[in-house]
Design a protein that fits this description.
The chain is of the alpha+beta class and 150 residues long. Helices cover 18% and strands 44% of the residues. It has a single domain, classed as Jelly Rolls (Sandwich). The chain is built from two helices and ten strands, in the order H-H-E-E-E-E-E-E-E-E-E-E. Strand 4 and strand 5 form a beta hairpin. The radius of gyration is 22 Å and the shape is globular. The termini are far apart.
Length: 150
Amino acid sequence: MIMTKQLIFIMAVATLIVFCIPFEAKSQCGDELTNICHAKLGNTRFIRSFPVQHGEVDRGSSPRVTRYEIILNRGTTYRIFACNDKTKPGRVIVSLYRGDQLIATTYDVETGRHFPYIEYPVNMSGRYSLQFMFKGGKEGCAVGILSTVN
C-alpha cells in the first residue's frame, strides 16, 4: 500500500514535469552559431564575422536586408559564406555588391538554387558591401563569414 502511494506520487510529479514545463528547441543564434561557422573555414583564413537576425516580415512586404560595408584588396581571393540557425525557418541569402552593382550571390533566382559560398578574386581594391536577407522574408538567424582563400 505504501509502495503504491509512492509510485502514484512519483508518476504525478513526472507528469507535471513533462506537461507543465515548456520545452523549446535550443536556438543556435549567437556565439554557438559563430563557432559552428568557424569550423567550416576549411582552407581559408578568417577575416570577420557578420551576425544577422531578422523577424518574419508581413506577407507582401519586402524582406529585410542587413548591410555591412567592407574593404576588399586587389589580388586577394575572398570566400564569403554563412551558417543558418537550423531552429529558425529562414534560409540566408548573401550578396556581394560594389556600389549598386551586384557582383555575386549565394542564390540564383531563376533556378531557385542556393550555393554554399561566394568566392571572388578582387581585381579592384575598394569599398564593397555584403547584404544578408532571408528567403521569403522568413524569420532567421545566421552568421556570415568573410575569409581569404589560402
